[in-house]
Amino acid sequence: MPTLPPIPLHEQRILLTGAAGKVARRLREPLAGACRALVCTDLLPLDGTAWPNETQTRCDLTDLDAVLQLTDGIDAIVHFAGYPREAGWDTLIPANIVALTHLWEAALHHGVRRIVYASTNHVVGFHPASHRLGVDAETKCDSRYGLTKAFAESTARFYYEKYGIASLGLRIGRCEDLPLDARMMSTWLHPHDLAQLVLMGLTAPIQADIRYGISNNAAAMCHNPDTPDLPYDPAHRAEDHPVATDAGHAKAWRFQGGPFADANYVGDPDRAAGYYRRKPVEAR
After folding, report:
1. Torsion angles phi and psi, residue 39, rounded to 5
2. What is the DSSP secondary-structure string of 27-86?
3. Which of 263, 262, 261 has its CA nearest to residue 120?
4. CATH code assigned at 107
5. Nearest by Cα to 144 from 222, 91, 81
6. Is there a domain that residue 281 lies in?
7. pLDDT band at 180 (very low <50, low <70, confident <90, very high)
8. Of 52, 66, 172, 67, whose CA–CA distance to 112 is shortest?
9. H-helix or E-strand containing 69?
10. pTM for the whole structure
């Protein structure tokens, strides 16, 4: 793919997938305010009135011909469609793998320059909760869902290295207006900080980068590198909104992935906590 001069964001036509979803719907307003035209798509109907520069359409991302039509004329993609929790392969493969490969292939076909996409902290969910992870931490998926997102990160890297399609993957913790439980004191992502991450991915120089989608939480189990090229400066902190939880009854999760890692786990927990293909990160 040839190197082309950047198009200013305010002149771009942006595609937002999964736009009816709990997280992506929060991006409609900031994206519409930043770009020339916003195309929002989902299988489900979108709530609320469309913004003046917003087009709403339904598209099944497992239909490659439909995705090729959807992405014609698009400058960048914000991909938040998919199945957002643990499930069987019959659910996860179409929603999180087939749909994803169709989008990257369509981007290649039409010359789309960059993609910002939702990954998850569950790609590193089997790291011990006592460790503080950087973006280069070894992949230790805690669920089938986490595996599909690790596939997304590998796909994004392949299409960058092979074809030059830049991407930013966001390992999102949990995006809510306020932290709702003790675990969210670490994993919380305020919607305004989410919007900052996505807009950064659409404007900053990126390759096939990864960032954690968390706010500036003191108890965070992960951290982002401090780099001038990707200047994420979250404005919100979980500790400013203490959760009304009896600390004596708050569950102490062994793994970073919390309930995803614990669900249906078989045998000795030290097996997952202690297995590394390379030297593990240091404990906090």
Report:
1. -105, 115
2. GHHHHHHHSSEEEEEESSPPPSPPPTTEEEEE--TT-HHHHHHHTTT-SEEEE--S--S-
3. 261
4. 3.40.50.720
5. 91
6. no
7. very high
8. 67
9. helix 64-70
10. 0.94
- Looking up tokens 């390992």 gives 171
Listed in sequence order, the residues at least 6 apart from 209 whose beta carbon sits closer than 8 Å to its beta carbon are: 135, 167, 168, 169, 230
| Beta-bridge mates of residue 17 | 41, 79
Please give the tally of structural domains in the chain.
1
Alpha carbon distance 211, 120 (integer Å): 10
Q: Which residue type occupies 71? A: T
Closest residue by Cα to residue 11 from 40, 41, 50, 37 = 37
Which phi and psi (to 5°) does residue 214 adopt? Answer: -135, 160
CB 113 within 8 A of CB 237: no
- Least confident among 17-31, 100-114, 249-263: 249-263
Report the catalytic residues.
145
3 in a domain, yes or no?
Answer: no
Q: Is residue 46 helix, strand or coil?
A: coil
Rg value, the chain, Cα: 19
Q: Is residue 153 part of a domain?
A: yes
Q: Which helix (H) or strand (E) holds 116?
A: strand 114-120
The 10s digit of each residue's pLDDT in 76-87 is: 999 999 999 999
> Cα(49)–Cα(218) distance, rounded to whole angstroms?
37
For tokens 């014609």, name the residue: 72
How far apart CA 127 and CA 108 sit, in angstroms, is 34
3-state secondary structure of 54: strand
Tokens of 18: 């999964």
Tens digits of residue pLDDT in 146-178 = 999 999 999 999 999 999 999 999 999 999 999
280, part of any domain: no
Domain range for 161 is 9-274
